[in-house]
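The instructor's notes for this session suggest beginning with a concrete chain rather than abstract definitions. Hand out the sequence below and ask the class to guess, before any prediction is shown, which regions might be ordered.
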Amino acid sequence: MRAAQSSAAVTRQRKGSGNGVGPGEKEQLGQWGRAWEVDWFSLASVVFLLLCAPLIVFYFVMSCDQFQCALSGPLLSVYSGKTSVGDIWARAPSFSGTAAGIYAAWVCFQVFLYLCVPDVCHKFLLGYVGGVQDGARTPAGLINKYEVNGLQAWIITHALWFANANYLHWFSPTIIFDHWIPLLWCANILGYIVATFAMLKAYFFPTNASDCKFTGNFFYDYMMGIEFNPRIGKWFDFKLFFNGRPGIVAWTLINLSFAAKQRELYGQVTNSMILVNVLQAIYVLDFFWNESWYLKTIDICHDHFGWYLGWGDCVWLPYLYTLQGLYLVYNPVQLSTVNAIGVLLLGLIGYYIFRMTNHQKDLFRRTGGSCRIWGRKPEYIECTYLSTDGTKHHSKLMISGFWGLARHFNYTGDLMGSLSYCLACGSGHLLPYFYIVYMSILLIHRCVRDEHRCLSKYGNDWRRYTDAVAYRLIPGVF
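After discussion, reveal the predicted structure:
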């Protein structure tokens, strides 16, 4: 009955204006969230990413597998006639039943931990917020509940990994590297299945029809998503699961497998590989320690669930965010003590800025501004916005602490950490530096996208905020 009602509601929305509300309503409500209408530039970008993003991942993986991580290797080899695209494809390991079994077991295990093992870490880890938590208010005015147990899933998974590596010996610690490319095909299959299912679900049985957005453009809707929070049952939330599991839990396991392979090949683990493992593990652990805070970020608060998140979390994240570790398997780098300390300090300072900036915002939000930032009561701008049901809500935008220096100073710290991962790989090749280039583009784009949405959401109140905090990332520069 509920599914039928939701389907009927979606039908009414599509008949009205192709996006859920009529033009007059959109203007009246000051809609926020992802785009309702698609311009030609956005459409061209979407089609480009749908066509090229899988090829980009394949290109980077093949650069390492067949050309020792020389980024220009495949292009120069094809251009000079030494090889052909068909030859590169033919030499790539193909899909295998073994890899499919490994990947299926991995995903099913993470689903089991997500759905069937309620969080207990919050009961004994001081300061950790887990268990059942409220998400942010959706554009339709709903507040979803989430079972926050990512840290627990990460701990259980890695405890089993280390138990196997040291005592059980069920499989080799190099298992991920040894099946890296066959696993790529499996990840792609899951990514496309999830994205396609999410789109069909939005049309025929959405979780909440009021939070669906139809642009009328198939490619944009497929990539950027229609449903805001697609769910199966009460607790399986697609967005939270795929954003955190299986990709981010796997991130540190992938790095550990790369380290094990480096030791197997060369008899040691270099200090650069240790730095990459440690610095990226800090980031991953921070994500899960603050998973309840993550419920209030742009991924959950604004992005709808489509190919961008579904395929991206299954393929793009685990295969391109781990390029530094993969590179160091093929090109081991032993940094000097001075360089290693410099990389470590850059990563730790970047992490401190990233974490403290986010902590200030979280503290301010939890206390409603009744707190102290840098020893003083924080200053803020009062804002109002409307949800799709016409209800007026109040919010506050802080202009003190790190948030008084730049509007996205947390991204500045994030970029410093990203650069440290790349610098750990030395200067022999460009490939490991893809990450800092990509993160710079991603986060600058997020700045622009987030501010456009905030302008739509808060109107003149947002303009007052940008007048008070003039810079986006770097105080005095940008």
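Then share the key points. The chain is about 60% helix and 5% strand. The radius of gyration is 23 Å.
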